[in-house]
Amino acid sequence: MTIKKLSDTIASQIAAGEVVDRPVSVVKELIENAIDAGASEIRVEIRKAGREHIRVSDNGEGILYEELELAVSRHATSKLSKTEELFDIKTLGFRGEALASIGSVSHLTLVSKPASQDVAAKLTVDGGSNSPMQRVAAPIGTEITVQDLFYNVPARLKFLRKDVTEAKHITGLITRYAMAYPQIRWSLTQDGNLEFQSTGNGNRIEILQALFGTNESKSLMPLSFGEKDLSIDGFISDLSLTRSNRKDITLFVNGRWVQDPTLTAAVIKAYNTMLMVGRYPVVVLFLTIPTSLVDVNVHPTKAEVRFRDQDHVFSGVQRAIRRGLLAYTPIPDLNSLNLWGRQASSTIPVSFDEKWQAQPAEPMQTPIGGDPTAMQQEPLPGTHLPLLRLIGQVASTYLVAEGPDGLYLIDQHAAHERVLFDQMMAQYRASMIPSQKFIESIPVELSPEKAGILEANLETMTSLGFEIEPFGPNTFLIRSIPMIVDRGDPKDAILAVVDAFEEDETPLENEAQAKIAARVCKGMAVKGGQALSEAEQRNLLLNLEASQSPRTCPHGRPTMIHLSANLLERQFGRRGAR
Questions:
Q1: Residue 94: how many other CB atoms lie within 10 Å
Q2: Whole-structure pTM value
Q3: Which CB contacts under 8 angstroms, 24+ apart, belong to 499-505?
Q4: Structural domains in the chain plus CATH codes
Q5: pLDDT tens figures, 189-246
Q6: In angstroms, what is the C-alpha Rg of the chain?
């Protein structure tokens, strides 16, 4: 094969693939340039989730007329001049690739005016080719417009997700950078609608409420921590606010949003033993470290960093969060709990050192019968449940029932999920989902990111018996819900649905209604710790017996544990004991 040099156009498009892989990448590069330019106001406008149109305007220092063409060429930057500065970077941008990369895969228009010049300069770049510059009237600052992104790289367009997903990423980016730079006035407009706006007064609490909603932000606690070469500020969630994934662990290092596995692991470890397995906290942390101790020249997107002393940063993050949790979260005193209806007579203060770690569990003792395998569980008999006789409820969470083949311990939440799901899907297939209207509509406030997801899928919610309508910015009114789930909190159902869309970016591609119904039922099912009357317990058992898939909830979690008569006999030494 003959070796030949790539053309400048191909080389630029290859470089663009490293820096710009979706619309949110364009927005990220442009707002970081605006921050570096000292802007106090940044406005972002997008259409069609950024595929068709992106415009970022700022009131920063602008670009000189004679340097405008140089600014859109590769490896041109004002932020580095010698090698030593590469290891002491104090700006967000430094590679000099962003504008050139964006211009090579779009129609880019750049208008900029510094305070030292009387008029602004305008430059257009089409697929990497510059048009002659023009002098135009414009305010001080820079305005960059990107149209028809990837118009000359159609293969890249095929990898983009649906508009609701791409728009969600952009909204998340803007709101998070607004958290990091609250002194800047931010605004985001999508398809002509104002999605997010901040005052620029420096108050992070206001932006926190916009990012997570008023209700969830109440569960976030401020954090401040400092030691040698490391300062940490931000917010951590109490133990009542969790997620099923790590997406709401947001980390900034010296004002740069990073996705660092080590820091994320430190956050998760700080919550170790405090959260249920598979649940993750909501955390927003801003780390300040001397720039000489951080290497940001790791990845073209600048989303990864390396620390000179990684262990010091890891342990610092862990200690900071652990201290915050111990300061804000009261540790229950077992001696003061009301157990079995009796109030303890004394209170013994309990405290833990911040370095406390979970101790390994005690080894399981050999059963009475002497057989080490006596605790091994036998497979559940058959595919359907036999007729069960209700015995009662334990800890307001589990139902105890007797069957012809032994004892059944049933998780009431998982079982109710299965029952509700089967009923809802049966009604949906029959096109008969009766709804319960509310006398007074229930308002639900969501973050801009989540509001966009719900609004894009209102039609699917309607097909499942919900009547939901927009009511102002990021707010919706619930007017009716399916009758079979009218016992639970409708807000929980809506939040569960939105979370489902965030975790699965293509929930509407296949079996959309089934996936949404499963989430709705999870939010509306009776919870653990909820006392049920005897009639409610019996009704739940009867409905579970009628299910075609009674062993698991719609998400695959087991609904029951079966203790066979043989297992009980071995445990009590009635079989095999001599």
A1: 18
A2: 0.69
A3: 499/243, 499/244, 501/164, 501/453, 501/454, 501/457, 502/168, 502/247, 502/449, 502/450, 502/453, 503/244, 503/245, 503/247, 505/161, 505/162, 505/165
A4: 8-209 (3.30.565.10), 219-328 (3.30.230.10), 387-578 (3.30.1540.20)
A5: 999 989 899 999 999 988 888 778 777 888 899 999 998 889 999 999 998 888 878 8
A6: 29
